[in-house]
Amino acid sequence: MVKNHKKSALTLQGVSKWFGGVSAVRGVDLVIKVGERRALIGPNGAGKTTLFNLITGELPLDEGKIWLFGRDVTYWSARQRVMLGLGRTYQITQIFPNLTVEENLFLAVRRRQEISTGLLSNLFRSQTADSVFRERVRQVAQSVNLEDALTTLAGELSYGKQRQLELGLALAVDPKILLLDEPTAGLSAGERKWMTQLLEKIDKKVTILFIEHNIDVALHIADSVSVMYKGSIIAEADPEKIRMNKRVKEVYLGSPEVNG
Amino acid sequence: MSIYRLYCKYKLILEAGIVLSLFSFPWWMPAFYLTLAIRVLFFSILVMSFTFLAGQAGMISLSQAAFFGVSAYAVAITTVRFGIHFPLSVLIGILAAMGLASFFGLFAVRVKGVYFLMITLAFGQIIWGLADQWVSLTGGYNGISGISSPRIGGISFANPRFFYFPLLCVFLACLIFLALIKRSPFGLALRGVRDNPSRMVMLGYPVFLIKYVAFVLSGVIAGISGIFFVYFTGVINPHALGLSQAVWVMLASILGGVESLVGAIIGTLILSAMEVLLGQIIERYMLVIGVAFMLTILFASKGIMGSLQKFIPLRNLINAINKAHK
Amino acid sequence: MTEKIVLLLVLNSLTYAAVLFVMASGLTLAFNLMRVVNLAHGAFYLVGGYVGLSVLIITGNWGIALIAGGLTMAGVSIVIERFLLSQVRGNFLAQALLTLSLAIILADVSLAVWGGDPISIPSPTFLNSPIYFFGIIYPGFRLFILLIGIIIGVGLWFLLKKTKLGMAIRASVDNREIASATGVNVDRLSVMVFALSAFLGGVAGVIGGSFLALAPGEDFKILTLTLVVVIMGGMGSFGGTIIGALIISLILSIGRLYVPQFSIFLTFVPMVLVLSIWPHGLFGREK
Question: Is C239 exposed, middle or buried (CB count within 10 Å of its CB: 0-12, 13-18, 19+)?
Answer without folding.
Answer: exposed
